[in-house]
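Page 47, continued from p. 46.
Same chain as before, 282 aa.
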Amino acid sequence: MKNILITGTKGFIGKNLAYELSDLFLIHEINEDIFESDNWGDALLKKLQDIDPDVIFHIGACSDTLETDVNYMMIRNFEFTKILSEYSFTSETKLIYSSSAANYGTNNLYPSNLYGWSKYVAEQFVIQNGGIALRYFNVYGPGESNKGRMASVAYQMLEKIRNGEEVKLFPGEPKRDFVYIKDVISANIFAYKNYDDLVYEYYDVGCGESRTFEDVMNILELPYTYYREDEVPLGYQFFTQSNKEKWMPGWYPEYTLEMGLKNYIENINGENILLFKSKYDK
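Result:
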């Protein structure tokens, strides 16, 4: 049985991926507690050498796009990735990196905040060292209840309604490429299976369609109002959409927003978001 290392298995995507692959591989995990060591870099290298993984799915990161602590962000998102990337290059280990659509920023060229830049420079390292980077767009689905303010609009709005709170949207109909978690998991598996054909490049992972937050609310049949225009944050990103020409050749998403939200609701049991086993051909 092959050794698979997944970073960030306590998070949304990592948890789902580990669950999906648990019957097929010996899963090893690295999470936030690695940074409790004063010499966390040495501790990480020792873990890598002890595990000797066949493939690394590097998902763990600071995903808070509003984080402003430069050291905290760059250590977790760049330095951590740099060590994994250098190890993968020298040991000829497959590395599939969870990148972000934040790399496109507001001008579709460069990131516009600290989070985006931390992911962008880490992505460059991965690509240069022969890995694969997957730029996720707005991911939603079962298992995101621990993401707090970084959870999807669908989850946050459902929580607000449950708590009797008013749901407010930004005016101007911002649009997002909402990609369902099952499609994100399938993209990781596809990258692993077709690794040699995909290395030294980044790829978009989205549904290929940009939809409004109003669409999400209407599909879920939830009421909403609007913030004032002067309450929209400076530099707010009003549009994201994955480029189908930047999808991995041969990979495509299976879930439209309507299909994904329907499946999401079916997997909600009270306030507990359940994980699932998909039907992907493994």
